[in-house]
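Fill in residues.
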């Protein structure tokens, strides 16, 4: 095989990999979730809270309402970097930071 063709394929593969990477400037992973109580709900704001992902449904048209349903098959924990403790059942936007889920709840 021609070395020029191999070099072009390598360049194309390298460019595709660069485009697939998410940089810090583009933001990180986010998720919509709802807090829940597994055993004892945290009373301190700076704590990990049990969460379930929320599925969003509804008509995607201007002025329409959405319905939310928790995915009861999955539970994970997210750390609150805010100043208040969210009530159980609070809907939150979570951000993945350093392999951990975090959110900010200030009341």
């Amino acid at each position: 095989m021609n070395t020029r063709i191999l070099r072009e394929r390598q360049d194309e593969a390298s460019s595709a990999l660069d485009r697939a990477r998410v940089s810090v400037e583009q933001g990180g992973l986010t998720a919509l979730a709802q807090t829940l109580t597994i055993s004892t709900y945290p009373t301190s704001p700076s704590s990990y809270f049990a969460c379930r992902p929320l599925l969003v449904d509804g008509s995607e048209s201007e002025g329409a309402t959405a319905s939310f349903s928790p995915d009861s098959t999955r539970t994970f924990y997210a750390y609150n970097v805010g100043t208040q403790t969210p009530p159980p059942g609070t809907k939150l936007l979570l951000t993945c930071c350093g392999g951990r889920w975090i959110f900010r709840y200030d009341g």
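The chain has a mean pLDDT of 88.
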